[in-house]
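We emphasize that the prediction below concerns an isolated chain of 105 residues; any contacts that depend on oligomerization or on bound cofactors are therefore not represented. The input was used exactly as deposited, without trimming of termini.
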Amino acid sequence: MTRRFLIVPALALALAAAVAPVPANANPIERACQQSNRSAATPALCDCIGRAAQQTLTNRQMRDGARFFQDPQRAQDVRQSDRRTDEELWRAWRNFGQTAEALCR
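Result of the prediction step, given as a token string:
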């Protein structure tokens, strides 16, 4: 079940396309989505994922989470870490994944 929470946001971002220029006001998650160079998604999906991130993540969590897509091993390290800050990030990331899945279908 924990694996699903990693897969949902990762899949959502992995499917996102860099079809349109990145808006200046896009948050780090939306930018990562738009710059992911994937062909199966739309700017609308990236916008939705960005809105889900804004609802559920702090600015720092968005920046840290956007790095997961540049370095997937970092996501695994955070998920398995016993550090309080990593545990908080992972809980927030799982919540973000659930929210994005519900909003961005």
